[in-house]
Amino acid sequence: MKTAVVTDSTAYIPKEVRDKLNIHMIPLSVIFGNETYKEEIEIQAEEFYEEVKTKELPTTSQPSTGEFVTLFENLAKDYDAVISIHLSSGISGTYQGAVTAGEMVEGIEVYPFDSEISCMVQGFYVLEAAEMAQAGKAPEEILVRLDEMKKSVRAYFMVDDLAHLQRGGRLSSAQAIIGSLLQVKPLLHFENKKIVPFEKIRTRKKAMKRIVDLLEEDAKSGEAYQAVIIHANQKAEAEEWKAELEAKLPNVEFSVSYFGAVIGSHLGEGSMGLGWVKK
């Protein structure tokens, strides 16, 4: 059985990696006024962070069911099955779009998978699925492995400016004002598919240290982990953090990724995250 792997743009997997592993990507969009851009195709992360310096933060939109149907129908010409891995259904209807389209398309078996997370931590599932698909593994076997991974996936992130969260309905105006005055850096994580506060921490430095403490708790078992540092237009800081963590945690393999246009619209520039999974 030949299995295709699909994900959406919020996994932020570089194009060269997608091409190498034959990963098919469906984009979400950012909307500046009357202009709509498909992220990772018509607007890259660097361009997005430049745009928002001079414009209001955009709104975002998920792919239409029709876009999924077209993609799945094209894949049906060459594949028997598709595993479609998407950002958490608690923050976007993208996963549901894949479910609906999968029920409409004939000639290919569609297996939607809710990552219950986003960004390159979602990408961990995609890369694993793609490698297994290339090795000829059956979709059912791949899904068992993805569910196994879910048990050890963790991700925490910190926003630099509470205004973005407040605008997106994540914090009340009062909380945002008080938080800004106190320089609170809320640590956030996904719980039951939604973004919720994990802890409130006073400074950026302490927030980042707290995330490292959480990783160390898991990594002290000595088992091999892969981890990703995710930044919102803070590449130099992310690379510096990576070098520090590599020296401290030799059993963890680190990489650097980014919050692209869609997720960056909700978190804002300066945000930083760290996610990991047991290898």
TrEMBL record:
It holds the Pfam family DegV. It comes from the Bacteria. The keyword Calcium does not apply. Keywords: Lipid-binding. InterPro entries: DegV, DegV_C, DegV_domain_contain. Coiled coil: none annotated. NCBIfam families: DegV (TIGR00762). This is DegV family protein with EDD domain. It comes from Anoxybacillus andreesenii.
